[in-house]
Amino acid sequence: MTPAFLLQTLASLVAIFLLVALAAWARIARPAPALDADTARALIAEEFPDHALGPVWVAGDGAAAIARSQDEALIVYRAGDGYVARSLPWSKLADGRASGGAVALKLGDVTAPRIRFSLAEGGAWPPPMGEAGR
Amino acid sequence: MTLDPVTLATPFFILAVILEIVLGKLGKARAHYEGRDTLVSLSLGLGSTLAGLLTAGVVFAATLWVYQHRLFTIPMSAWWAWAAIFVLEDLTYYWFHRLSHERRFWWASHVNHHSSQHYNLSTALRQTWTGGLNGSWLLWLPLAFLGFPPPMIAIEKSISLVYQFWIHTEAVRRLPGPLEAVFNTPSHHRVHHARNPRYLDSNYAGILIVWDRMFGTFVAEDEPPRYGIVKNLGDFNIVRAAFHEWASIGQDLWRARSPREAAGYLFGPPGWSPDGSRQTSTALKAAWARRRGGAVPPEPEHAALTPPGLNGKPRT
To answer: What ipTM describes this predicted complex?
Structure first.
């Protein structure tokens, strides 16, 4: 490991720090407003185009939503300024653990292991069968 | 001093990212950056450089060994040699890139580059940490066997990498027609990075888009691209970004019930599963075509080379 290599690596780390700081300062992420029933339904329909959507349940903070499609729970949730979509058997929602006004739900996926689903005030978990809206 | 185009271009990379962010901030260009996404992209870039050093010696030694058994001796000083390697290296890149998308073992390394939901110049630097280990560098050995000197091959590979940096942007919409016809452009490469079903497995070009036109993988930009992978990552964990597909392969191999299933999980197309319960690109494109009432896209041209059941079409 030569001094030149170490210097180049250090300079790269400094450059990364500065570029990330600049990107954060610029605040030019895509707009990602809180989901409501309509936008959540549209997003889920786009992610799961071959599924017939039943009721949609939106998280209290608008950062996630779950739609029922027969025996499946179709889930979208925000990651940064984008969204991630996964599906689970509806029965698996009962495994979620509620605490502090949110539910931690394991997705069983290396690429997206778990989500935190914020409950609306007075919201129950799991979503009641057939309940729609927030 | 060695001539490494990537090293020489690094200051340009940094300045170009700064320029894109500033133009995006001023509203003068279309550019979206998210801090954590940018951090993952740039860190994967640095990590890729460091990881590449681990295998660079083996790759260089192998290339040198093959060159010692070359068919011809091609001079680095001849203009025609540079013209020839430009075309041949780009053709090699096309097939490397296609392999990296259409077979899971190589996709596991390449997926890093596609796992951002953004498409900006920092995405270009989001490179693999495991590419040196999957043997894809073997594809360039025929160039040495033909007689191209190893430094010439390395320089041409770097030129291709540098070219492909600037096309990772939404700031440039379309170039004049003749350029769009011949070269890989921001528009063509946006399609390549999109997860819209109609855009999957298309536009593999490095510099010349003519290969995609020639081999039937060209798709023009039409509807707005949605970037990322079919199943986007759930967070900004850099270790997950670097290794998630390898971990998924490991899980699948653990569950495999036969050597055939193991081979399918390893060398089938991404999304392959023995019971067809997952979706490959071919299946996703077919579903898209059905929804719009059009013709189902034809099987990939390479399907005939693939063992039955591993051709990207769920078994029935």
So the answer is: 0.92
